[in-house]
Amino acid sequence: MSRAFGYRAFGGPEVQLYFDRPDPQPGDGEILVKVRAAGVARLDHLLRSGAVRMLNGHVPFPQVMGMEAAGDVLAVGAGDVPAQVRELAPSGVDGVIDLVGGDSLRAIAGLVKDAKQLLSAADSIVSELGGEYLTRRLGRASLEAVAALMVDGTIDPQITRTFTFDQSAEALAAVETGHTTGKLVIAVTA
Which residue from 84, 144, 168, 176 has the highest number of Cβ atoms inside 10 Å of its Cβ? Predict the structure, then answer.
């Protein structure tokens, strides 16, 4: 079972709830992600309100809140994911960052409009595909370099506030006011 934050019907904050649900299984062309962090967006409360039913009107209740997530891919469903991406973006995508390599990298390489925008931190073969291999330098020096870039403003993630999963309703309420600046993030712990 997994814990989720969502809504039981279209409406305002009164329809929101935390609920347990069976662990999801990815369908054709889907991936299963263990969420580590979720961004809170204006779209979240619009979906909950029913204002954009063309996006979620077909999804059964309760619906899980959230359109932005970062985490670990746990499973990949059947189907041809690159073909589905081509269907959604027939002229290609602006860029791909690969963290898997191997056959997965080869399968997605043709999706980018410009091969120079194909980056991999997992497989140096990306260079043969026209992309760039990202050498990861983990350690104190690298972290200090990133911190310096953040201090001087070169990297500005604009994260205004981080909430816990149990504060999801509060995070959504803050976005719903329309008076937030930067990004609100929900940190999800195991």
Answer: 168
> First CA to last CA across the chain, in angstroms?
12
Q: Is the distance from CB of 92 to CB of 113 less than 8 angstroms?
A: yes
Q: Taking every pair of C-alpha atoms in the chain, what is the biggest distance, in angstroms?
A: 54
Please list, in sequence order, all residues whose beta carbon lies within 8 angstroms of the beta carbon of residue 102, skipping any fewer than 6 positions away.
Answer: 122, 123
Question: Which tokens is 36 given?
Answer: 């580590």
Instruction: For residue 40, give the nearest of 8, 65, 13, 14 by alpha carbon.
Output: 65
Residue 49 CA to residue 43 CA, distance in Å, equals 10
3-state secondary structure of 118: strand
> What are the beta bridge partners of residue 183?
159
pLDDT digits (tens, 9 = 90+) for 4-56: 999 999 999 999 999 999 988 988 878 888 899 999 988 999 999 999 999 99
pTM given for the model: 0.63
Contact 62, 19 (CB under 8 A): yes
